[in-house]
Amino acid sequence: MTQPEVVRYGELKPCRSAFIDAHTPGSDQKENFTIIGAGVAESPDQHVHIKATPGFNIGAAGQPPKCVNSLHFHNTAEVFFVLSGKWRFFWGVNGDAGEVILQEGDIFNIPTRVFRGFENVGTDYGMIMAILGGDDSGGGVIWAPHVLETAQAHGLVLSEAGVLYDTKKGQTLPDGEQPMIKLSATQLAEIAEIPVDKVVPDYVARYWDMMALASNKPCQVIGEAALIKDKPGFEVELLTRGSIATDSYINPQHEVIMVVRGHWRITWLDNEVVLNPGDTCWIPPNLAHSLEVCVTGEASLYRISGTSDVAGLTWQDS
Length: 318
Fold this sequence. Notes:
mainly beta, Jelly Rolls, 2 domains, 7-stranded mixed sheet, 4 helices
């Protein structure tokens, strides 16, 4: 029988050259992590911790203060929750359509095909965890044209196949391979610009609001009938010590546990493992298992379950 797999926060292996902006000043100190699935990294140096294909990917980004992740979009869902630090998320073709500040535990479901970026605006190294829709994440990352231009000026070229080449290391595009084509002015004009007054009520859920809602039952965070109504190929719940069931249960879908606060024990068959903040556990389908909090104090985790939906929320101007 396939067994659960755990990735410890302290054992995460970063890639510092995962994306096109790895040399761009202001973005050159970020670290990217692929925890579960293929991920979307453009570099072969990206380490994949768990190669399961649950229908979604789990990743993370770690950045020191003032470090920025450049404007991009995906064709599938991208959901972030803040594990540590204080983060500014901004969006729009030029990054000026709006912004929101997220604190620890907050979650942000960003619509597909909307340019987004993020910056650590705290005082210490911060980490955000990511859930990406699809096993192949919709074909990777689509960058704003100025990101590609700036990167090339600093020695990085992205091929049309989505592979990164570093000219500072003597790398060149293979014969017959062309650079990634930049979006045209017409294509850019078709990219949605979400009004800032629509973001918080429709796409953001605050940690302490969810904690209150999860006092005696799981808080449905992302799903067809959840706080954030979406069908991105997975559902997200927030659990606390008051909302966990005492008995074991079986999930017919792939399940991922991501601890926000506290220490949690997962038990299955004759096995158990204790998870700490920042740890991630993949649980295969149809395996009976149970959850419990090990210590007193604040305790919370996000539980992600795969679904048959694949689209992800697309912004519609109403």
